[in-house]
Amino acid sequence: MTGISSLLAVADAYGDVCSVPQSTVSKRALQDSARLAQLRSGSCDIGVKRLARTLQWFSDNWPLSRDADWPADVQRPAKSVVPSEASAA
């Protein structure tokens, strides 16, 4: 699975769990409501750093619902450490 395919699989799963359209997922994760559709159509590309940041965003913002399974064939980044959590440790 390519990086873009992995991102789209995660975005699709997130949209399904949150019951929101692709444009909303795209706006939340990429600050651009059309970007996921453009990636899906092949009309644009995404850089490695932005891809990593976006997958990190999904990992950090993944719903806690029991039905919110991360796609099995996509490696999930570890959640980011929030500064207040780090100082409390």
Write the topology of this structure.
Elements: H1 3-18, H2 22-30, H3 35-41, H4 48-60, H5 83-88
Helix pairs in contact: 1-2, 1-4
Features of this protein?
89 residues; 57% helix; globular
Please outline the major beta sheet.
none
User: From the alpha-carbon coordinates, what is the Rg to the nearest angstrom?
Assistant: 13 Å
Number of DSSP strand runs: 0
Distance between the termini: 37 Å
Mean pLDDT: 92
Parts with pLDDT < 50 across at least 5 consecutive residues: none
Shape: globular
Strand content: under 5%
Query: What structural class is derived from the secondary structure elements?
Result: mainly alpha
Tally of alpha and pi helices? 5
Total domain modules: 1
User: Percent range for helical residues?
Assistant: 55-70%
- What is the H/E string? HHHHH
Describe this structure in words.
This protein has one domain (3-65, 72-84). The protein is an all-alpha fold. It is globular. The protein starts with a helix and ends with a helix. The mean pLDDT is 92. The chain contains 5 helices and no strands. Helix 1 (3-18) packs across helix 2 (22-30) and helix 1 (3-18) packs parallel to helix 4. The longest helix is centred in the first third of the chain and has 16 residues, at 3-18.
Concise synopsis of the structure shown:
With 89 residues, the protein is an all-alpha fold. Helices cover 57% and strands 0% of the residues.
